[in-house]
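User: Please fill in residues for this 321-position structure.
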C-alpha cells in the first residue's frame, strides 16, 4: 500500500519521541487494516446465493466521485480468523440485504457532495450523506430524540460508546434502523433486536451510502495490556471516517475525520499526530465528555494542525462540513 510522505514524516517524529502512536502507526504500515495475519477472503461457495445476488444488485457502480479525493481502490479483506465469531452462530445475519462481502462488491464510486454532521456529545455523531447513520450512542451523549435512522453503528463495547439501555429505546423509536456492532460487542447487545456483527473487510450499504469496515484493537491504555476489539467506519469511501478509540489510518484518503481529543488512552499530542497522518480536509473533535474544559482541547488541536482544518461543532446543531 503506498504511504503518503506526510505519513513517513509523522511516523519518524513519533518514533523519535517514543510516542505510543508510533507503535500504532508502525503496525498499520506493516500490517494494513484491510489485512490480518491470518485473514482470507470468504469462500464464495459458502455464500447464500440470494444474499450474493441482492448484494450485487444493490451497489451502484457509476456514481461520480468527489474531485481531488482518491477512492478506495482496495477492498479490505475480511478477518475470517474468528472461530467463535457470533455471526458464524447466526446464519440469519448472512441474509441481511445491507451486508456485502469485499470480494463480491464491484468497484463502486459512491459519494455525496456534502456531509452533514451533528455532534451529540462525546463520540456520538449523526452522519447524513443520503442515509442517516448514528455512530456510538454512549452514556455521555444525548441521542434519545433522533429519528428516521437507517442504521446505528457501534465501534466498540465501552459504555461511553454504547449505552445498551437507552439504545433499546432508540431502536424501538426507529424500527427501520439496522444495528451494526463489532465482534466483541455482540454479547452486550444479545437482548436487542436483530443486529449485524461486522468484521474488518465488510462493506455495508444503506441506500446510496456505503460503509467500509476497518478495524483491529482499541488503542492501548497502558503498555501491553490487551484491549477490546474496535471497528472503524469509512463512509462513502472517505467522505467521513470514525476511528472509534483508535489511531487507525485507512488506506483511502479521508475528507472529514472524527478525532478524539481526550481519554485514558491518548494525549493531545497524539491526536495532533493522528490528524497530520490522515491529512483530512477537515477534522472534527470528539471524545471530550470526560474533560471539564473541552474548548481548551479543541483550541490546542486547532493550533497545531493546518489552518482551518479543525472544525468544532456546536453540540446538537447540524452542520455541513
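Assistant: Residues filled in for all 321 positions:
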Amino acid at each position: 500500500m503506498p504511504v503518503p510522505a506526510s505519513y513517513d514524516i509523522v511516523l519518524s517524529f513519533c518514533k523519535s519521541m517514543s510516542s505510543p502512536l508510533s507503535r500504532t502507526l508502525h503496525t498499520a504500515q506493516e500490517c494494513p487494516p484491510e489485512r490480518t495475519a491470518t485473514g482470507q477472503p470468504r469462500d464464495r461457495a459458502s455464500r447464500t446465493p440470494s444474499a450474493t445476488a441482492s448484494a450485487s444488485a444493490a451497489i451502484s457502480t457509476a456514481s461520480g466521485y468527489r474531485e481531488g479525493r482518491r477512492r478506495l481502490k482496495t477492498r479490505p479483506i475480511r478477518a475470517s480468523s474468528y472461530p467463535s465469531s457470533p455471526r458464524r452462530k447466526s446464519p440469519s445475519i448472512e441474509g441481511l440485504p445491507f451486508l456485502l462481502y469485499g470480494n463480491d462488491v464491484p468497484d463502486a464510486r459512491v459519494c455525496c457532495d456534502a456531509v452533514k454532521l451533528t455532534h451529540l456529545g462525546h463520540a456520538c455523531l449523526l452522519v447524513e450523506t443520503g442515509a442517516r447513520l448514528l455512530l456510538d450512542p454512549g452514556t455521555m451523549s444525548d441521542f434519545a430524540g433522533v429519528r428516521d435512522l437507517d442504521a446505528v453503528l457501534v465501534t466498540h463495547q465501552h459504555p461511553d460508546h454504547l449505552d445498551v439501555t437507552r439504545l433499546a429505546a432508540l431502536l424501538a423509536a426507529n424500527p427501520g434502523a439496522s444495528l451494526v456492532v463489532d465482534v466483541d460487542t455482540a454479547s452486550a447487545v444479545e437482548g436487542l433486536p436483530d443486529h449485524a456483527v461486522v468484521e474488518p473487510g465488510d462493506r455495508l450499504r444503506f441506500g446510496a451510502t456505503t460503509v467500509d469496515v476497518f478495524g483491529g484493537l482499541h488503542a492501548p491504555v497502558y503498555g501491553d495490556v490487551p484491549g477490546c476489539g474496535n471497528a472503524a467506519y469509512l463512509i462513502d469511501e472517505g467522505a467521513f471516517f470514525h476511528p472509534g478509540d483508535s489511531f487507525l489510518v485507512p488506506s483511502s484518503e479521508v475528507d472529514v475525520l472524527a478525532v478524539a481529543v481526550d481519554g485514558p488512552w491518548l494525549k493531545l499530542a497524539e491526536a495532533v499526530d493522528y490528524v497530520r497522518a490522515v491529512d483530512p480536509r477537515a477534522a472534527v473533535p470528539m471524545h471530550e465528555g470526560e474533560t471539564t474544559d473541552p474548548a481548551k482541547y479543541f483550541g490546542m488541536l486547532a493550533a497545531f494542525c493546518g489552518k482551518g482544518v479543525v472544525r468544532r461543532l456546536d453540540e446538537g446543531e447540524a452542520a455541513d462540513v
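For context: Residues 77 and 201 are 4 Å apart (CA to CA).
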